[in-house]
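User: Structure please.
Assistant: Input sequence and predicted structure:
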Amino acid sequence: MSDLLMPGADEVLPLSEFTEKAYLDYSMYVILDRALPHVGDGLKPVQRRIIYAMSELGLKASAKFKKSARTVGDVIGKYHPHGDSAAYEAMVLMAQPFSFRYPLVDGQGNWGSQDDPKSFAAMRYTEARLTPFADVLLGELGQGTVDWQSNFDGTMDEPIVLPAQAPTVLLNGTTGIAVGMATDIPPHNIREVIDATIALLDKPKSTVEDLCEYIQGPDMATAAEIITPRADMIKMYKSGRGSVKMRALWEQEDGDIVVTALPHQVSGNKILEQIASQMQAKKLPMVADLRDESDHENPTRLVIVPRSNRIDIQSVMDHLFATTDLERSYRINMNVIGIDGKPAVKPLNIMLGEWLSYRADTIRKRLQHRLDWVDRRLHLLDGMLIAYLNLDEVIEIIRTEEKPKQVLMERFELTEAQANYILDTRLRQLARLEEMKIRGEQDELATEKDKLEGILGSERKLKTLIKKELKAVAKEYGDARRSPIVVRGEAKAFSESDLLGSDPVTVILSDKGWIRAAKGHDIDPAALNYKAGDSFKLHVKGKSNQPVIMIDSTGRSYSMPAHTLPSARGQGEPVTGKLNPPSGASFEALIMGPDDQAVLLGSDAGYGFITKLADLQSKNKAGKALLTLPPEAKVLPPKLVTVTADTYLAALTNEGRMLVFPITDLPILVRGKGNKIISIPSARAQSRDEYMIDVAALMPGQSLKVWAGKRHLAMKISDMEHYLGERGRRGHKLPRGFQRVDRLEVVD
């Protein structure tokens, strides 16, 4: 079974070679004959065959509509031997004004809607004809402009590529998936594309940047905004790959949000479903209601009702742009079959350059076809003039001779074509022939011949003709840009904390590690009910949309969303159920506040640093390493501080030594041991005879109280000159009676 006989051949191939050849043949067929457009006319084979079949049925823009089933029948019966539904869907796409920027099929009946493009009626119910724009593809078809090939059964011919008069490969764009490659070309504005094409014709060495002065970017069949930065757009056109981002248009009307235009091929129903699902999941509490008010006059009108007039509408829309299809990215992959017959991803200048080469070749064929006809006509007119000047003799020969053609050819030195033309002309017309008419037509044709030969013999004249015809197409079919290109900021979705209420809460931690949260700040944590053998240890005041940060005795930090904590009406739940601290570690501090709040961290060994609350947060249940502790050192309670040039830091040891220095002398770090705040002799530090018991940040206008038991000493910054020094110094002794101090307190 390892060898196979090739069909119709005596050659036996190994199975691996047979399958490889079969798959490669299939791949090339899909790439060249199914999925990718040709750079010449921008059409895939099925689209080209539909357009050609409709023209053969006489379904021009001025004709009456015919049933779509008739067209599809001709397409699959004569040119495209595939399923009727696939051919009809391709036809529908070319008829939908919200899918094709410049539709090629003019449909009558239900051809789908933007909300549901697949909702079109069956082909037996709809009717169609070509649009006027289809003439851009078909106008020169019968003028010797294209090469022909046999159809699938060899009974008739079909054009290989249509003679497009404009770069339709960019105008309507296309999408397709082949084997191992795909294409995604966006639609563009015809005026911009033709202006760029003319610019490239005038300056063949134009760069992509030069052409982008004319082509601002894609122009979708919708009024939604394109928000891709210009630099990204140029990069996309240079490489042929990239993406384009579109954002819906909206306006505020009587406090409501009204969406008036959606991104390309986005369904309004899907948008409403996406928003409604967020509302049901309570992820959009600021939206009260949704309405779809779309109708024939307003094809897109989606109304989003805010819960109150205090809602920030712009932030709501930014969230919706980030989480729904109100903002959507489109992949760009300008992969086409080039004029060499090979598929390739082409940058903008190469694609337009190849199209110009194809167009020049098409026009040369058209002019040569016309020149050949003019030569034949002049040749026939020469014979007719001879016949007119010898009319009686010609009539006599025709009446009397058995083989008048041979006699005419010999008598007047005519060619066979001239003799046949004379003989095919009715006697009545021969009799009415006038020399002046013949000579007049000869003069007109001779002038046209000179003009045609002049254009064919001059590249400059050919370029002028291409330019003139391109301008005529732009004038007839050109329209204003539909998709405005604007600069917008990055859309940002609401974080979980943004969606929560900002209510005051107090978080309480018990001695045994049970945690809970009470509403409000007027709570007496010690008065709450605790389990037997347990008691109050720590508490912190904050807001429900802030995380509560915990620091353990090893210097690791942890965080939990405050809104997820159990109510203080109960006894809470163990922290170890939510976090996983090291064995033997205990929690020594709780902190809450905004992410950008500065916090002073330190150890009683006299070291510390400043960081931000955001750097203390960790989603890891095991927390994150934060404060490195020297041997035997303990974590000091963290202090929320304000770092300014006139803020001072006071450090106090248990032996009553105090040092005051500017807070800006302390470094801002993310983690570590920190820098020395106050010096403690190593022998005393190791024996734990002396250690730093507290630090405090003092701002102008505030007073510092030093407590020793029930006694306290109050002083302002102006009173601390004796204790001012460089960071890391030993400090000075406090007055008698404050040799054994407990803590520092800042008073406003």
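The chain has a mean pLDDT of 90.
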